[in-house]
Amino acid sequence: MTVFSSARDAIDSALEAQSAVSSTELTVRIGLHTGDSLRRDGDYYGVAVNKAARIAGIAAGGEIIVSAVTAELSGGQGGHFGPARTVSLKGLAGTHEILTVEAS
Question: 81 near 71, Cβ under 8 Å?
């Protein structure tokens, strides 16, 4: 897990990470969500952290998935967003909109 000061920085870093491993046999799946978290003893906790982990769990190798909140807060910059889709996330009530991100 990594924490960023902005949604756009998170998306930019995710795209850089995917690009860095694209010429290798490694695949990385990345899930991003933006929200409040609690920091304790050098680690982060809370619903936002749990949601990011659940989104990452949906991603396939080589895929970046973001919450609709993260996409909106990025200002639509940092990559190309695919169409929104609605999913259920284990342990989180209701449904949640997510989008895939690809390099522009």
Answer: yes
